[in-house]
Amino acid sequence: MIRTYMETDLEEMVRIWYDASVVAHPFVSASFWASHKSAMKEKYLPLAENYVFEQEGEVVGFISLAGERVCALFVAPKAQGKGIGKALLEHAKTLRDRVSLRVYRDNKKAIHFYESRGLKATGEEVDEHTSCLQVLMEWE
Q1: To 5 degrees, how large is the angle CA 120–CA 37–CA 42?
Q2: Structural domain of residue 86, as residue ranges?
Q3: What is the total count of domains within the chain?
Q4: Where do the N-acetyltransferase domain residues begin and end (predicted)?
Q5: What is the DSSP string of 83-95?
Q6: What gap in Å lies between CA 125 and CA 55, rounded to an integer?
Q7: Which CATH number fits the domain that encloses residue 114?
Q8: Ranges of the chain with pLDDT below 70
Q9: CA 135 to CA 38: how far, in whole Å?
């Protein structure tokens, strides 16, 4: 079930973000992600429009929007490959006429996922925090 997040979901959302980030981005040190946990909880997530995927009373994934931009889409590693990310992205597409996002170029699995959901690469830029190349993707 997809629902609007509640403040009580924040701890679990940060845990999912951290765990999934470490798995999906082996080219970025785990210490980088760990150093951003408090900012995710106290700044970034509270400022976004968040939706969580709840399964059997447990939050297993979430998507965060800022206008048309998908700021975050993460699924707990143990729950990946079960259609949760797809459901969250499709939910966002029902709320917006257009969505855009950035994904690390070295995260081939994510790029394939977004392409299979109809997003197209529109450019590249360097992430100022990690110095890694990001692909800009859009759907409309």
Answers
A1: 95
A2: 2-139
A3: 1
A4: 1-140
A5: SHHHHHHHHHHHH
A6: 36
A7: 3.40.630.30
A8: none
A9: 26
